[in-house]
Amino acid sequence: MMEGRPFKFRILELLEERGSMWNYELVPILQDEYNMHSDYYRDCLNFDLIEVAASGMSCEVDERLDEDESFGHILFKYKITPLGVELLNDLRSKVHVKKGE
Amino acid sequence: MDVNEKKLEAHKKRVKYGYLMAIFCAIFWGIWYVPGNFIWGFDVITEFQDIIAGMGHDVNVGFLAAAVLITALNAAFVIFSYLIWNLVLGKAKFSEMKRSLKELRACTKYYFFGALCGGPIAILGSFIAMGYIGGAFAAVAALAYPVIGTLLARTWLGQKISHRALAGILIILVGSISIYGIGMMEDLSKGGSMIGYIGGIMALCGWGVEGAIAAKGLDVSEPDIAITLRFAMENIIWWVVAIPILLLLSFPVLEYAWLMISDPVILLSLVMLGLTFGFCYVAWYKSFPLIGVGRGQGIGSLYGLCAVIFLILFTGIAAAGETLPKQLSLILGAILCTVGTIVMFTEKTENVECLREGEGTEAGDERQ
Question: How many whole angstroms from its chain centre is CA A22?
Fold first, then answer.
């Protein structure tokens, strides 16, 4: 439902659908969906994940060292929080209806 | 370095970036007062106010109409600076802007209300306070906005705020108010005015409420997109609602807007207004998702000190310190602002790791 909608809408939905996810798994999905294939956009989308976590909509559940340093020095695994689920459900009731939906 | 140290380092970096953005906001806001001060000195503005006074209106009506004209032009030039900013950030930002704009109920509404609070309510309120009571009173009223922002962030958004951060915000506030304190007493000793007090409350609440609304919107959108949409909304409010109202009153507002744009020196001042205000707001919005509304606004209110410094540096105008007592209160204010900033900067990163009550700690139980 959130495909093609603002990044943070989709991030919350992916986290809810797929359970906890590493940033190196989530970012390439977003890069493909939004056609943002560059290291610069990878960093931008990774920063969106950081903001979503800082705001309490997701939380870090695991971390490990980033061997090739493409996501900084450390990789994070995120999980949606109850507050994030609440926000996502609220968004679902408010998003504009696309043709064919 | 092990994984825990790297994790702590990553969190510290994020918080440092948030504070850096809040400081940039204060610096750009402070610089904004230089062209902001110049613009009122141009003959066209005096002429415009004289014409309105000549139509039989009160002097303050002319002053407020000029304030609307300047603020509307300011908003227009801010949007130009954001177009450049988003071009630099890449074309994907424009696509995201389009996607966000479509989500009126889920996202864009926050920027409309944010623009309403920060634009007509806060800026106009500030000008009303300035016109009916005095500049120092208006400055103090506006500088106290983090009180409202922090309260709303705590109660409405559920953002946690540590005692240390709260102490830092309060020290900065006392420092900022001290800078203009004696001037404010002088303004108030002239008798005050109910309209002026209402203007002060509008300024105090407008920016405070905007911060909380913006933080709500930033939960679902990127700061660069959010701020562009917020100023697009503010432009609609000024150019589609406020300016036509002035035209209905037969004020020559478009004629004077054109006179200002066609004068190269005034145009340069407007470009400077747009760039400084634009980047101050980008930085303000970028700080909220990382350090929270209270901290972002607390550090952001250092603009009071920055404005005094930049006005002295660039124009020689000692806005807050022409006499010895005022100079002493300026020095005291500057010291308090510095102490407050240090108190906040040295806060443990764990307090800022997750901005909402309970959500970050819960993660610990769910680790796999």
Answer: 10
| Predicted-assembly ipTM surpassing the 0.85 threshold | yes
**pLDDT on residue B60:** 87
Question: What is the distance between the alpha carbons of residues B355 and B14, in angstroms, rounded to a whole number?
Answer: 12
Which two structure tokens, joined as six digits, stand for B136? 């120092």
B291-333 per-position pLDDT tens digit:
999 999 999 999 988 988 888 888 776 655 667 888 888 889 8
> What is the H or E stretch that residue A35 is in?
none
Token pair of B125 as six digits: 């309120």
Helix then strand then coil, % of chain B, to nearest 5? 85, 0, 15
Give me the sign of the Cα torsion angle B82, B84, B90, B91. positive
- DSSP letter at B240? I
CB A52, CB A84: distance < 8 Å: yes
Determine the Cα–Cα distance for residues B29 and B304; give it in Å rounded to an integer: 9
Q: Is A67 exposed, middle or buried (0-12, 13-18, 19+ CB in 10 A)?
A: exposed
Integer angstrom CA distances of residue B106 from A3, A88, B11, B199: 15, 10, 29, 31
Contacts with B354 from chain A: Cβ below 8 Å: 53-54, 56, 59
CB distance A79–B363 less than 8 Å?
A: yes
* Closest-CA distance of chain A to residue B85, Å: 15
Query: How far A100 CA sits from the closest chain B CA (Å)?
Result: 16
Check CB contact under 8 Å for B106 and A94: yes
Report the alpha-carbon distance of residue A28 to residue A24 in Å, rounded.
7
A100 φ/ψ angles, rounded to the nearest 5 degrees: 90, -5
pLDDT value at A98 more than 90: no
Query: Domain A7-94, CATH 3.50.50.60 — does that match?
Result: no
**CA A23, CA A52: separation in Å to the nearest integer?**
12
Q: How far is B141 from chain A (nearest CA, A)?
A: 29
Predicted confidence (pLDDT) at residue B272 exceeds the cutoff of 90: yes
Best A30, A59, A66, A85 residue to mutate vs chain B (most B CBs within 10 Å): A59
Probe site for chain B from A35, A43, A58, A60 (most B CB atoms < 10 A) = A60
Domain limits, chain A: 7-94
Scan residues 212-231 of B and list those with Cβ closer than 8 Å to A: 215, 218-222, 225
Instruction: Determine contact: B359 vs chain A, CB below 8 A.
Output: yes
